[in-house]
Batch of 3 targets.
Target 1
Amino acid sequence: MTTALHSILRFIGRQHWIPFGRERILRLFCHPDRQRSYPFETDFFGLRYPGDLSNFIDWTVYFYGASSHDELFIIRDLAAALRKEGRPVVVYDIGANIGHHTLFAAGCADRVVSFEPFETVRRKLDEKIAVNALANVTVYPIALGAENGSFPFYPPVGSNEGTGSLLPAAGVEPIRVPVRRGDEIVREDALPLPTILKIDVEGAEADAFAGLRDTLQAARPFVLMELLGATRERLAGEAALRNLLYPDAEFFTLAPRRGRRDYVLTPFDFDRTFEVFIAPKGAVAGIPALSGRLERGRK
């Protein structure tokens, strides 16, 4: 692919006012699953982002500017609100992968604590930290779970390196990774309690939450998570998910606002919500940047 075509496709990808069709055009000329290695470095909200078009998350950053704008922008708004209240901005990134969310959070947080057990993607996370000389990020080369030990991990297949999981995957040969209870690490290393927690562990969220129970109860952080099919099946209902968090947690659906680089918060539906936003009761109503994005009465 020529540099000129890259430039045209990047221009199209970043026209966020176009609600439909951009993805089809990009995939027609530069399909993420058929890309050869093409290293690049781009600006990422004032930080340097080294990537490669053969990786789906990097592909998304290259053409769209970021992956999951809605998640990033709510982290930004939460950080601003916490600072205004005089509270620390401490982000836990559980399942940090190649460091997309960690890098963004480092630009607006006092401290970022990231957990990533898979060395292949963790090297890319470490590269982002190094090229930006980030001093506020700590990376743990482990997974979080309900028990300590060495457990099978099923590496990702294909261009999307964010799909590795502790859950079995058909046809994938597992490796072993260290798993720790998060509460023990927080106590042993005297880590600051999280005020924002993002978790993406491909269906193993319940185990990670179980091992962080004391921390979640004490910190009552804002939580961002995906509710995948595997997660729903293992939880078997909304009550089980709520029981893993703190008692006064409010649940919302987080969604991108169509045609804009923005987000909305809508009513939570366990069976249909994909991106979940969790907050202490009343917190969203007290933050204008969030309460102004509430859309009520829509499932």
Target 2
Amino acid sequence: MKNILLTILLTGLTAISVAAQNTEKGVDTQTKSIQKETKVNDRSHDVGRSFSFGKGKTKIRAKLDNPYPLTARRDFLIDTISGVLKDNKMILDESASKLNQGLIVTKPYTFSKGVILTKNEINRYADTLSPDQVFSRGRFSLTVEVQSIDGIRNNVLVNASVEGRSENGLFSEWTNLSSSGEAEDEFLAKLVEALGKDLNEEGRKP
């Protein structure tokens, strides 16, 4: 009787052990499969990835020479300059300009408003004195000189006067900043395009 009971007990324990092992193997296999699949598919937090948009798709143009040489009649060139300024919503300062002498001056043009936007934009157009400077607005005015070389050749010189406005709640003031050359280059590029010329022609810096 004891032998029969012992045999039944051993058989039961063996069956339980085998079932447990099979269950453990199943879980282990499934877990490994899930981990492997997750590792392959979940890339949302993979900070090591980098995106390539292809070489040559983003080209940075070198700044144009300033003054920039242009072949065009002086009067036609002055009219084109005035048109480019008007198209870009820049107002001519008639009291300061002397068109018959090839001098064109604009009134201040506000290129940014708001602290966050102005911080980024003013760093493009000016060399700020200190990284701690906070401006709520940025503006610049342009002085364009058409310098005659001969009857059909002229140099166009552009200077930008950049300012940043700071406020403390009680009063505000405009601070003169050193131009980075970006405003001058942007205007020259638009002028060259308005004349139907290629930016890769003479006058471009290497």
Target 3
Amino acid sequence: MVMLKQMMTYDVIVVGAGAAGMMAAITAARRGKAVLLLEKLSKIGAKLKATGGGRCNLTNTLSNADFMARFGREGRFMTESLHALDHKDLVEFFKEIGVESHAPDGYRIFPTSHNSTTIISALESEMSRLNIHVKCSQKVLRLNSNERITGVTTQEQTYEAPSVIIATGGMGYPQLGADGDGYEFAISVGHKIKELYPAMMPLHTKESWVKNCRADTIAKVELHVNLPKTKTLKERGDLIFTNSGIRGPLVLDFAREVTPLLKKHGEVPLLINLVKGMNEEQVQLHFKNELQKNPHQNTLELINTLLPESLCLEVCHMASIDSAVGFNKQEGKQRAAVIKLLTAMPLTVTGHDGFKMAMITRGGISLKEINPKTMQSKLIEGLYFCGEVMDLDGPCGGYNLQWSFSSGYIAGHLSENLL
């Protein structure tokens, strides 16, 4: 009976074996703690395995200040976490456990294998070396507390520990285990949850012409929300048209801004600059120069100097012009319409596929109730949070994984001095 109790009692219990949870477990174990890592799925690192299409974009080379700025107003919450474990420290950590990494484009950092399995295997080996007790297929049902945290109860048994770290992630990709249980745990001890929205995913549009342009990527597009009081909501990047809307890096990053507006307004009008940010005068000058070089080209061929042919045809159709006619032979209002469409193409977002296609969750446990220096709850002693379960999300490019690892590292110190 005594032996059974010893097996069920730990210094630290980590709930969730993703990037944040595994880092928290390793950090605590390296500091001499007896650690239990509980995972509801049959394998660890399911979402980490899918990250970056399986290539695992770990982090990026931005300075801490620039990195935090990409998270918006709440980014400064990461100050202590990044001071403790920034991208250089993360690269060194993985090197220590046998994973080499590089930044082939000078910005995004990947394992040199470009395979997320390399990362998961290294983390698994390090947890084994540290004697971390990993139990999969263990769904935690509730937190246990008596003025402070005392442990957790799963569908099989109760585990005791004075410290519990919640690393359950968000709501995205429910097929990889996300079901919002971390939010329920937080609510059960009094925490507030900022409203949850799916983010980092494709968007559906009202306009059906987009399906005719889905073969091409449009580089350096500028996207603006065309609603009152949203003039600052804009993004730049590569856009891909789909059978039902838009996707690509630009859309993945911007979806977090659009989904709350969709809930409020029902649809979200966008204006898209398709020509790398050129204004109307610059487009006119470009056309003038092209026509001087080749005065016999028709309107389609002229627009094709800026955009793929499939999109050129749609622009001509929307401007009600004959694409086979020379540009200077078109009526003035039609020429103006073409230029306007190139610099401010209207597109209306009407929906999305919800959390099932969302890589990231916008919203989460209120940061006001978490100590940024320790990741410990301000409401109950012994409870810690790390990763996506908190109200903090960033764009594509290694931001969210770095945040998961950094916050897990801080949480794993269990309020002890990091110096």
